[in-house]
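I hope you will forgive my troubling you with a question about protein structure. The full record is reproduced below for your convenience:

——
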Amino acid sequence: MSNSLAKKRRANLPPPPMPMPAPAPNPSPSNLNQPPAIGRPMTLPQVLSILEKRLSILEKSKDMEETTSIMATTPASIMNDSLKETLDEYETRFDMLAEQINYIKDTLMKLQTFTMEVNQTLLLERREAENNSVHFSSLIEEKEVKVEDDEE
């Protein structure tokens, strides 16, 4: 993170000055706060004053970011009325949807239960029919055997 901040700070620096053959003027207290002319090297006090200004600007922007983040995390009692109304409306809609989903779920459960009961009933009837047909076919076979025995 400190690398990214350092890169940002460096990105805001002016391009490095090009050395010129002209002699640099002696720094005086009046021209320390002014940026140097293009093409002239900066003196140490000028560099330090520019860095100090940039740091103060960064600190102010950081303070502003912290202030906005604090404002973003304020409790709901500070929210304005229109936002509260909107949130209440969303909450009402959410509750209504939750009730409808529960109703649909209950209806599907009842439908599934009914279907399972019908399938069970059909299965039992089929087993009874198969048992009756097996029993009936065994009775027919017994009678056929008796008839054949009687014929002999």
Q: What stands out?
A: The chain is about 70% helix and 0% strand.
